[in-house]
Amino acid sequence: MVALTDRVQKRLTMQTAEIAPDTTTIRSLDWDRDRFDIEFGLQNGTTYNSFLIQGEQIALVDTSHEKFRQLYLDTLRGLIEPQQINYLIISHTEPDHSGLVKDILELAPEVTVVGAKVAIQFLEDLVHKPFKRQIVKNGDKLDLGKGHVLEFVNAPNLHWPDTIFSYDSGTQVMFTCDAFGMHYCSASTYDQDLGAIEADYRFYYECLMAPNARSVLSALKRMDKLPEVKMIATGHGPLLRYNVEELVGRYRSWSQAQTKAEKLVIVFYISDYGYSDRLSQAIARGITKTGVGVEMIDLKSVDPQEVQESVSRASGIVIGMPPAYNNSATAAVSTVLAAAKSKQAIGLFESYGEDDEPIDPVMSQFKTVGLKEAFAAIRIKETPSESTYQLCEEAGTDMGQWLSLERTIKNMKSLDSELDKALGRISGGLYIITAKKGEIKSAMLASWVSQASFKPLGFTIAVAKDRAIESLMQVGDKFVLNILEEGNYQALMKHFLKRFKPGADRFAGVKTQSANNGSPILTDALAYLECKVSKRMECSDHWIVYSTVESGRVSKTDSLTAVHHRKVGNHY
Ligand code: FEO
What we know:
Blueprint: E1 12-20, E2 23-30, E3 46-54, E4 58-61, H1 69-79, E5 87-89, H2 95-98, H3 101-107, E6 112-115, H4 117-127, E7 132-135, E8 141-143, E9 149-154, E10 164-168, E11 173-177, H5 194-209, H6 213-224, E12 231-234, H7 244-259, E13 264-269, H8 276-288, E14 293-298, H9 304-313, E15 316-320, H10 327-339, E16 345-349, H11 359-369, E17 372-373, H12 386-403, H13 405-412, H14 417-424, E18 428-429, E19 431-437, E20 440-446, E21 449-453, E22 458-464, E23 478-483, H15 490-497, E24 512-514, E25 520-522, E26 527-539, E27 542-554, E28 563-564
Parallel strand pairs: 4-5, 5-6, 6-7, 11-12, 13-14, 13-15, 15-16, 16-17
Antiparallel strand pairs: 1-2, 2-3, 3-4, 8-9, 9-10, 10-11, 18-28, 19-20, 19-23, 21-22, 22-27, 23-26, 24-25, 26-27
Bound molecules: MU-OXO-diiron (FEO).
């Protein structure tokens, strides 16, 4: 059976495969999962991967999303009688992996649930019934027989504080849940086509793992102590079998780069309350786009010392309002306040749970201590939409840009004025990139645009990493390149050079029409091209976005393109 949405029939299918001796993956394939459903930018669906290890004792590693209830349980029953399962290993308690734990406990009431202490506490609240449990710590082992000895690796914050990895020394398969995953749905069980998956792998890292880069490095250190890992059995997307070293290496180098950032923002959120988790991710992504580091801390499980230590290292603090009834979380906010110092930046957002601690008194206390409000408090009045997440991301970027201001000004100062002047003689045209994805739109003035190929017709644009539109220019995204006209570009240029507030409509007061690909065409542009992002190359502080052209038109054939002449080349 499939689930129905308003207009589209969603495709949900199952796949099972033997991935190692006595080890079967049960993959729930969610082909059409909507963008913004979890990690923004998601376009290629996702999968929820569960695993069955049949030693003398039988272990099930994670379950699935509740939308797969019938399909998953039927598939599981096709492999084994659920009562035969001895252990249910919980890598992480987010509902996309633990959505069917209650069902498994009903089918197999004698099963022992294995997980980190925080995970078991969370499940107690979820299940409301006694169940057998085994709390595991880093290095603990569970012998399933037939050579399958599971060793547990603590991996807090990847993606909640409850996360553990499980390494089967018998098969050298490591079960990592969110870590090393990606939102990518295909019939391929494995990662043989690196080219097809690497953009999603990177984007997923940026959304979920970059704000936890320190935790990624700690987990990698623990992994390094294990014997060889031949396969990474992730909770989302294809399992890593062909590119384990390469893809683990990318996590290492991206995380090392993140932790070297000069400035740091601590984002306090509260897992499993309202939309705190997703909203905080969007803010964190906005911050990391500016090159400022982020650490995410769950107010639900943090201790006061950790709060003090992290706040003392931070240049900025973001807090998702916890529920007023949660005494330990509200006490943690008081600890943040007590540890905060003047000149730090502060940003607050509502979690949209049922009983958020009010923002205003908390903000005024931070201001009294001398903190500067980096973005207007984000107040959520209805279920967050794509626009809400866009607003959060842009608020995060504003905060990051403000914290990087000194560095930006320093970079603008000339080191070699002759060189800067010479570089400034590289000229470009003047263009406005416009994009629409789902319900959100964005635009950017661009000058670093250059044709790059004939077959297919293609060109490149250099997009600074902290541009809002960057999130709408992922591989596969569509946009319009509006080409401005010599002598008739000033009004558009002035409009799009403005500093827009987070979430502001960049097209207010501008004449537009809709392109076939949905993006706005600026009516006053000289020409436009409808384009599709094909590849992205990382170049220090910019992305070089190579795009192919699908169609285009010129409004005045005898007019010329506006040209941007600069004095120096070390800043825009
Ligand atoms: Fe895939 Fe954090 O759950």
